[in-house]
Every structure is written in structure tokens, then in C-alpha cells.
Amino acid sequence: MTNNIKKIRKSKGIQQNELAEQLGMHVTSLNRIENNRSAPSLKRITQLAEALGVDVSDLMQDDITTQEVPIVGFVGAGAEITPDLEQVPPGGLNSVSLPFGMDDDMIAFEVKGDGMLPRYDDGDVIVAYRNQRRPTDTFYGSEAVVKTMNGKRYIKQVLKGAKGINLMSWNAKPIENVSIDWVGEIYVTIRADQIPRALKKK
Predict the structure, then answer these.
(1) Where does the chain have alpha helices with state H?
(2) How many CB atoms lie within 10 A of CB 141?
(3) Please, what is the end-to-end C-alpha distance for the chain in angstroms?
(4) What Cα–Cα distance (Å) separates residue 3 from each residue in 8, 53, 90?
(5) Using one digit for the tens of pLDDT, what is the confidence trace for 53-98?
(6) Euclidean distance between CA atoms 131 and 134, whole angstroms
(7) Sequence-distant (≥ 6) Cβ neighbours of residue 54 within 8 angstroms
(8) Displacement of CA 144 from its chain's centroid (Å)
(9) 153 touches 102 (CB < 8 A)
(10) How many angstroms separate the CA atoms of 69 and 97, rounded?
(11) CATH superfamily of the domain spanning 5-59
């Protein structure tokens, strides 16, 4: 995996040790990443992009294979989304092109509402696994895309309730004791202000 990290860092006048300290990593580890002797994780790439004030796509060389993920609908963060009533074209809303390889089993949703601020903004895109990969109770305490048995889709923190599952927001009332049909494990979040650069229109 080749990258533009060193080039961008230098263009911004940031010393290698300063960037490493900001990210809480050893300067030797950053040096290895910058010189393509170590491949950064997706989490680290995202941290580097945020620290340098650029998009993830700006860090990667053009020879990196990109992968398109379809945006298949909306997910409610305060708003209620009923998938069966969504006005989404058969091919999806559009797709997002990401500069790193992923499993083929990925779909994306656009966030609607402000119930999960400051974690998720209206217009953010959430990339998640299409199929639930592990039991629902293993998501307790985590944020995930969920579909309830009564047909609503949200992005919420999943907690155990007295008689079911509680779906927690950051600044909205919880949805308590619901039954879950599906949990979509979040793979990556693309911020709304990065979307025009990331989206590939159909």
C-alpha cells in the first residue's frame, strides 16, 4: 500500500514527531508507515486523515484499487426510517468509492436526523456489513445500524433492556424494549463534508 502521508505532512509544515505525538503512536511506527514498510489499519488511516485535515482518499496513491459500495437507503439518527416505505431507486441512491479493499459483503446508508450528534451528523454515510455476522447480544454497548421487528431502521447504541433491546441516542430519548430483526456491524463512517469527494453518482 503506497501513500501520500509524508508528502502531505511536509506540505503542511508538520514534523514527523509532532504528528506521531498527536496520534499517540511511536515516531518509528509512523516512519514505517510513511515509507511504505508497514501498512496502516483503516482506523489509523482515518486518524491520519483527520490529523492532517484531508480526506482519506487524499492519503492514498492513485494505484490503490478502490471499491464501490452501494448506498441502499437511509438510517435514522433521530428520524424514523421505514425501509419498506423508502423512495429509493432500484439501484440505490448512489455509491461511495473507497480507496481501500473491503469484503464484498458491504452496504452503505445515509444518516438522517441529529439524534446521534456529535458522533454522527445528518448526511454522514455509514458503511456496514450486509449480513449480521454475530449474535445481537455481542453488540451490547456498541453503536450499530439496526432494523427492528416493526420495520424501523436506525443507527443507535445497542443495550440490553428489561424486556428486549434498548436503542440509545446521544441527545434524543431512548427507544426501549424493542425486538431486533438485524444488526449491521459498522465498518467505517464517511463524514458529510467528505461525501462530494467520495461519492460516485450513478
Answers:
(1) 5-11, 16-23, 27-34, 42-52, 56-59, 195-198
(2) 10
(3) 28
(4) 10, 15, 36
(5) 988 878 876 554 567 788 888 998 888 788 877 777 777 778 887 7
(6) 9
(7) 8
(8) 10
(9) no
(10) 6
(11) lambda repressor-like DNA-binding domains (1.10.260.40)
Q: Is the dihedral of CA 47, 191, 118, 101 positive or negative?
A: negative
Q: Report, as an integer, the average pLDDT of 103-131.
A: 87
Q: What is the pLDDT of residue 168?
A: 94
Residue 156's beta-bridge partner residues?
A: 144
C-alpha R_g of the chain = 19
Q: Are 29 and 20 in contact (CB under 8 A)?
A: yes
Domain boundaries, the chain: 5-59, 67-200
CA distance 22 to 35: 19
Residue 118: partners with Cβ closer than 8 Å, 6 or more residues away: 170
Instruction: Please indicate whether the domains covering 5-59 and 67-200 agree at the CATH topology level.
Output: no
pLDDT tens-digit readout, 172-202? 889 999 999 999 999 888 888 776 655 654 4
What is the fold, at CATH topology level, of the domain defined by 67-200? Umud Fragment, subunit A (2.10.109)
pLDDT attached to residue 159: 96
User: What letters, b where the CB count within 10 A reaches 16 and e where it falls short, cover 82-92?
Assistant: eeeeeeeeeee
3-class SS of residue 201: coil
Q: How far is CA 45 from the centre of its chain?
A: 13
